[in-house]
Amino acid sequence: MPTRDRNLQPVNLPADWSVDSWRARPAAQLPTYPDPVELEAVLGELKSLPPLVTSWEILALRQQLAEAQEGKRFLLQGGDCAETFDACSSEVVSNRLKVLLQMSLVLVHGLRKPVVRVGRFAGQYAKPRSADTETIGGLTLPSYRGDMVNAPAFDADARRPDPRRMVKAHARSAMTMNFVRALIDGGFADLHHPEYWDLNWVGHSPLADEYREMVEAIGDAVRFMETLSGSEVHNLNRVDFYTSHEALLLPYEAALTRQVPRHWGWFNLGTHFPWIGMRTAAIDGAHVEYFRGIRNPIALKVGPSVSADQLLRTIDLLNPDDEPGRLTFIHRMGAAAIAERLPPLLDAVRRDGRRVLWVCDPMHGNTEGTANGYKTRRFSNIGSELEQAFDLHAAAGTRLGGVHLELTGEDVTECMGGARDLTETDLERAYRSTVDPRLNYEQSLEVAMLIVRKQATLAACG
């Protein structure tokens, strides 16, 4: 029977699931829109807009994540804590891409395995908040929940949840993806010329010499291979690149969730790799209900309060058939808590024989406030949590297969420490984040080098 004549309905859809079944569950972290009619009109518009990604890209990423589960690849996932509409510019996007490419180059060179590159952008426009409202000077307004929902300025008009912002977020996500694809297809990621990825402001970085020596070594290796083969190695001139974001605003995510020809099931075509945050991970909640029915590879943030029983029950819901590449756990415990809280989870999942990709987020558990009013993270704590994660996985007989970072290619001073030893007084010089502090270029590169050195140490001890 010709493909066009077949019934292409899902053949493995979870029981009692639909694109809107999440609406019957308790939904955390969703804004209250003042005009329901306007909201429905916007959602109708979103449903008619072209998708941002394709089902075959999603399935290709899922295969790569399955290989990462087996130790054949390493996941590098990074980008902004919360994108802003104003930062959708060629310079910001290209600098962000440069950082991830440079980090992946360090990892490929040091780990001797392919790297799965996933950007935390082109959709990271919504953020969870600890409170629904914020009070300043006696005035109480809705909290800022990211540019997809409202604006950061503290006035009633800016803080009003506006559904039209979802359409703006879709448009800027599309522009970001188009530019990234054009850069990569045009040779921006060509390994013959990694020197093109340099950021102008880091020529004097303490890490610059070490990185350039690595670039020269890779260039020599590429030229050596091509001399032996007598022709150019063409598959070095581009890379696979994928996007991810926290799928927080479920009306937006559901509007971009669709069926496609030649593949059964439902795909979130707004991103390749959505994840569930800690604040929306309730087993009976709306977000878990939505996620259990989509075919994308999915991730779950796992914090120090999660029990082994909770984790196993979540696996039963999100990956009941133990499909390879389907489920990633991103643990974010904090440097002070990881040694106590992570091992019971690793042991439970290993004993139960569940197939997951373990990834470390060393950022979110290490956030603190300063005396001068800034939210920051200490690079020493970030590095400590990451190094402990490698050790704990090795001791448990599991594998740390990736890292999840909040970072930027801009010359910001938001996290203390690192190669330039930024202090509390440096924060006010270039603190630009609207929500959480990010690693700058140097600190990001230093994390990549830390991973390589730690892996080498473990290999030598093994």
UniProtKB/TrEMBL annotation:
GO molecular function: 3-deoxy-7-phosphoheptulonate synthase activity
Ranges that cross the membrane: none
InterPro entries for the chain: Aldolase_TIM (IPR013785), DAHP_synth_2 (IPR002480)
Catalytic activity: D-erythrose 4-phosphate + phosphoenolpyruvate + H2O = 7-phospho-2-dehydro-3-deoxy-D-arabino-heptonate + phosphate
One Pfam family in the UniProt entry: DAHP_synth_2
Enzyme class, UniProt record, top EC level: transferase
UniProt key word Nucleus: no
Record-listed E.C. numbers: 2.5.1.54
UniProt-listed Gene3D superfamilies: Aldolase class I
Keyword Transferase: yes
Key words, A-Z: Transferase
SUPFAM superfamilies attached to this UniProt entry: Aldolase
Membership in a protein family: Belongs to the class-II DAHP synthase family.
NCBIfam families found in the cross-reference section: DAHP_synth_II (TIGR01358)
Stated name of the protein: Phospho-2-dehydro-3-deoxyheptonate aldolase
Taxonomic lineage from the root: Bacteria, Pseudomonadati, Pseudomonadota, Gammaproteobacteria, Lysobacterales
